[in-house]
Amino acid sequence: MANKILDIHELKREFKMGSEIVRALKGVSFTVDAGEFVTIMGSSGSGKTTMLNILGCLDKPTDGQYLLDGVDIKSQSRNELAKLRNTKIGFVFQSYNLLARTSALENVELPLLYNSEIPAKERKDRAIKALESVRLADRLDHLPNQLSGGQQQRVAIARALVNTPVMILADEATGNLDTRTSYEIMALLQELNSQQGKTIVFVTHEPDIAAFSSRTVTLKDGRVVKDTKNENVRSAKEALAALPVDTDY
Fold it and tell me: Which residues in 45-199 belong to E strands, given as ranges?
């Protein structure tokens, strides 16, 4: 039986806004197995952001169950959630979230600083290895402003990988990138998924980006309206090769 990385059952999240109760999630259920590449799609107001915050252990559900790699999130204290975030989830954001005056290598080392058991040399070695895996071995000492958008996102992916998490959680990770660079990032994620077996949950509102994943969960008005396996997964590498060389952006 496949190891379930995410196991979500009848998840609900309500917010009190003045005298009103806003039901952002209305009983969401789905699972993600180890080694899957799943996209979560939904337009603005679908519950996608609330779902992302719960998946990333930044928020807890009002009701229902969320197991992350077998751990029940609802029963965790704030400190325990912080530890789970740092050890089990690698985050990749739309805006990269890199420290501006810090080199690529130091940015990637950052999540390891919270673990006092990891000595400085191991920290550096692991960060170098993560940067090599995203093909940035020649950019270790570069600051973010010396890197292109695509390179900055690669640094962010290396940072997400450095703690060997059980899941990479990407939030609109291609949202700030042009088509060519978006496809480059998706090709890298497909490679990490197929060659290293990384479990990836990618939140997007773009159908062409979702076509690169093996399964799409669609949210609308706080519910799962579709959960479909993508029979013909698009190769980002091939899509990239098919782009005109002189495309203007």
Answer: 63-68, 71-72, 89-92, 167-171
Dihedral sign, CA of 78, 81, 87, 92? negative
- pLDDT class of 246 with cuts at 50, 70, 90: low
Which two three-digit tokens encode residue 228?
A: 């479909």
CA-wise closest residue to 91 among 23, 16, 170, 25: 170
Do 84 and 71 form a contact (C-beta atoms < 8 A)?
A: yes
Q: 27 with 64: CB under 8 angstroms? A: yes
The DSSP result for 44-60, as a single string, is: TTSSHHHHHHHHTTSS-
Tokens of 143: 């600051």
Nearest to 66 by CA among 32, 21, 23: 32
Strand-pair category, 37-41 with 167-171: unpaired
Spatial separation of the C-alpha atoms in residues 196 and 176, rounded to whole Å: 26
The pair of three-digit structure tokens given for residue 60, joined into one six-digit string: 């807890």
CA nearest to 30, candidates 241, 236, 215: 215
Ramachandran area for residue 201 (φ above 0: left; ψ -120 to 50: alpha; else beta): beta
Query: ∠233-238-240 over CA atoms, to 5°?
Result: 115
Distance CA 161, CA 163 (A): 6
pTM listed for this prediction: 0.91
pLDDT at 247: 47
Extract the tokens encoding 225: 């309206």
* Model pLDDT for residues 218-236, shown as the tens digit of each residue: 999 999 999 999 999 999 9
